[in-house]
Write a structure and sequence with these properties.
mainly alpha; 9 helices; single chain
Length: about 210
């Protein structure tokens, strides 16, 4: 029984990492269960269990007769998600008060998106509210693919993340909250370009967002 639970968790984590960071699937495209079984050396049973778990996390959609799909993404959907993430992080920063307790440098070797998500996770922990921690983790999972699109649309992506970390490490709670709001406002202005990018459509001038 213990070995089966370990296998199920391994398959779940492998599939989640693949779908969020490595696959080229577009919103609305179908998940190929036999392909995942071959890719991760697992039978269809743990693969389907992992996919159902991802449906529960709103990272996949299950439709009768269509199987599992990458969720379709609209501009209102993405705008709502950015606004929800902003509200969570502003609340976390306010709850943490002026306590620094934040490494000034991001973890090395994982790339700018992982560094940003590490920062947001640490901010959530500082809130002292486990529900905020879970909500921020869930929002980061759902925003991971949009953040991959952000990398091509926002040349200053890494600089923005470093500035947020600097403010968090300094204990400047008010400045951090303002920076979090500004960070998300910029992405809200880019929602149409991000959605187009995720669907594989070009944008006329993706590297010049409105200020």
């Amino acid at each position: 029984m213990i070995d089966r639970l370990g296998t199920g968790e391994r398959v779940y984590l492998s599939i989640k990492t693949y779908l969020l960071s490595e696959s080229a699937l577009r919103p609305g495209e179908r998940i190929d269960v036999p392909d995942l079984s071959r890719r991760f050396g697992a039978s269809a049973t743990p693969v389907r269990a992992a996919l159902h778990r991802l449906v529960g996390e709103r990272l996949l959609t299950a439709l009768q007769g269509e199987g599992f799909l990458v969720p379709r993404l609209t501009e209102p959907d993405l705008s709502d998600l950015y606004q929800w993430n902003a509200a969570l992080l502003v609340n976390a920063a306010r709850s943490a008060g002026g306590e620094p307790a934040m490494p000034p440098e991001p973890p090395t070797g994982d790339g700018p998106i992982a560094a940003l998500e590490d920062l947001f996770a640490r901010l959530a922990v500082r809130s002292g509210n486990v529900e905020v921690e879970w909500a921020v983790a869930g929002a980061s999972d759902r925003l991971h693919r949009p953040r991959c699109a952000e990398l091509t649309l926002i040349p200053e992506f890494e600089d923005e993340a470093l500035e947020l970390r600097r403010l968090a490490a300094s204990g400047a709670s008010g400045g951090l909250r303002q920076a979090i709001v500004a960070y998300h406002r910029r992405r809200l202005r880019l929602v149409p370009a991000i959605v187009r990018s995720l669907h594989g459509l070009s944008d006329r001038d993706p590297r010049r967002p409105a200020e």
